């Protein structure tokens, strides 16, 4: 692999352009991925925010579901934000019965977990290894349950108005797979993308 890692963004639906831009700023060569041949050429993959049920259906239509499962099982670094986190999880609560999972993370996520009243909000989170981070949540999931091998990187702060959301897990890592319930690609703060590009470099041994 060249010194600059090639990182794909799954480009079936969702906020693809924002991730491509953030990855370029973070030092990667960024490419949209729509076909199995394009997936085969990347060193790592971002699964963007959008609508997990739609992306799940399009993964089937574009014949990407099995190739993507295989690459993730084979250790390709992957980063999912919001809908991408849902796709990477082993199980989803409040999903659609026909929604497919990539099984890259040993977590159970709850879709649209923050409810209708507060379905979009911004805040500042402590993110392990990164520091304080602005975070934008849009009809976001949270991690309801995480397996022993999963590192918890961020939680919703336990403030008086956090209610049911207090302390909920919103960023995790398991080996080469990273996921956030929020959207760092929308804030202009590239530290999460830098973390992921570093993971891709490490996996490729450069
Ligand atoms: N609620 C969406 C879903 O279920 C995720 C929202 C997002 O990615 N901003 O996929």
Outline of this structure?
With 206 residues, the chain is of the alpha/beta class. It has helices spanning 16-25, 36-40, 52-61, 65-73, 83-88, 191-204; strands at residues 6-10, 29-33, 44-47, 78-81, 89-93, 105-110, 120-127, 131-138, 142-146, 151-155, 169-174, 177-180. A seven-stranded mixed β-sheet has the order 2-1-3-4-12-11-10.
Record the SSE blueprint.
Layout: E1 6-10, H1 16-25, E2 29-33, H2 36-40, E3 44-47, H3 52-61, H4 65-73, E4 78-81, H5 83-88, E5 89-93, E6 105-110, E7 120-127, E8 131-138, E9 142-146, E10 151-155, E11 169-174, E12 177-180, H6 191-204
Parallel strand pairs: 1-2, 1-3, 3-4, 4-12, 5-6
Antiparallel strand pairs: 6-9, 7-8, 10-11, 11-12
Bound molecules: glutamine.
* Helix and strand run: EHEHEHHEHEEEEEEEEH
Reported by name, the CATH topology is Rossmann fold
Number of strands: 12
Helix segment count?
6
What is the 3D form?
A: globular
Query: Could you say which structural class the secondary elements and strand pairing correspond to?
Result: alpha/beta
């Amino acid at each position: 692999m060249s010194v600059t890692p090639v990182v794909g963004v799954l480009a079936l639906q969702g906020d693809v352009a924002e991730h491509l831009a953030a990855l370029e700023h973070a030092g990667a060569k960024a490419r949209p991925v729509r076909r199995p041949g394009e997936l085969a050429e990347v060193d790592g993959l971002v699964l963007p925010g959008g609508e997990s049920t739609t992306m799940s259906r399009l993964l089937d239509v574009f014949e990407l579901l099995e190739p993507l499962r295989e690459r993730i099982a084979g250790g390709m670094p992957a980063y999912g934000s919001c809908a991408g986190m849902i796709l990477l999880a082993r199980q989803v609560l409040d999903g659609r019965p026909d929604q497919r999972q990539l099984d890259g993370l040993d977590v159970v996520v709850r879709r649209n977990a923050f409810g209708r009243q507060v379905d979009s909000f911004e805040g500042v989170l402590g993110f392990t290894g990164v520091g304080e981070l602005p975070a934008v949540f849009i009809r976001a999931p949270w991690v309801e349950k995480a397996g022993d091998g999963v590192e918890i990187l961020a939680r919703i702060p336990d403030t008086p108005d956090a209610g049911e959301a207090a302390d909920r897990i919103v960023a995790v890592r398991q080996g080469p797979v990273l996921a956030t319930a929020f959207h760092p690609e929308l804030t202009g703060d590239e530290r999460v993308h830098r973390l992921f590009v570093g993971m891709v470099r490490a996996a490729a041994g450069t």
